[in-house]
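Thread: Newbie trying to understand structure tokens

Hi all, I'm a second-year student working on a class project, and my supervisor (Dr. K.) asked me to get a predicted structure for one chain before our next meeting. I've only ever worked with sequences, so writing a 3D structure as a token string is new to me. If someone could post the tokens and maybe explain what I'm looking at, I'd be very grateful. Here's the chain:
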Amino acid sequence: MSISRRTAARSVRALGVASAAAALALGVAGNALACNISEFSAKASCEGDKGVITVTDVDASGTPAVVSVFLENNGGDEKKIGEQEVRGSREGATITFAEDWKPNATYRVHVKAGNLVDEDIKGNLTTPSEGCKKDTPTTPPATPSSPAPSPSASTPAEETPAPSASTSTAPADTVSNAPSPAVGDSNLAETGANSNTGLIAGVAGALVVVGGGAVFFGMRRRGAKSGN
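---
Reply by user tm_fold:
Sure, no problem. This is what the structure looks like when written as tokens:
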């Protein structure tokens, strides 16, 4: 049985469609396995009190890629932190950069994988607002107390004079054991018994006699001279 030309044309057309579909499927599969920038991610974290930047590659094809990390400042690269090679895997391959990052710092992460990828990870990496080192409050050192000033050797200590008995203070009254005079006695009776009135009167009388004698002899001598 001969095959008609129309039947042959239909067969060729069906084979072409099938081939095109297979090629498209292979192309899609190849693109799915190719390295892509979306398969890379970066994160800033802490290991103890040290800061690190971690880059993860989930490229299932395992295409080698070189990852470079830069610290940014005012929209430009301030310094290069480091560069490492990574081979991705479906589970994810990780590389770590030791970096004592500051809070709210910005880093640029660049990926170069052959002719497939040569660009930065979308969106720069911004570090957390709190650093890895926790600030512990420090107790200020105790201020030494100032020693009490010692008295100067050149300045003698002031001596407080001992209180002296005031001369104007009247002596305390002493209680006399002598009997008080009877009422009605004169002042003469009060002082005559214990005074030296008799002795004074005797001396006065003797002085009067001596004086009188001296006057008498003087007058007599004067009269004798006048008689001659």
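A couple of things are worth pointing out once you decode it. The helical segments are 5-33, 187-192, 197-227. The two ends are 238 Å apart (CA to CA). Feel free to ask follow-ups in this thread.
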